[in-house]
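Assess the record.
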Amino acid sequence: MKIKFEDAMKKLEDIIKRFETEDVDLDDSIKLFEEGMKLSSECSKKLNEVEKKIELITKNKNDDSVIKTFTAGRIEEAADE
């Protein structure tokens, strides 16, 4: 499932709102729960990716800040400008 983080969060909010404000029958509840779990998993993955990117902003041996990018499991140092 590829979905933007913001769109996934919006759908999760909509699902929660339906549970809070509507009488949802059992079959629909299960479908909504499954969809919510998938969306939650996708949001968690995206947050983990962002966390890895932030962690890669480190200092080099000269104590200068170095920005590295995390791309498909590889770490690359950003080129100097």
Observations:
- The CA atoms of residues 54 and 69 lie 9 Å apart.
- The chain has a mean pLDDT of 83.
- The first strand starts at residue 57 and ends at 59.
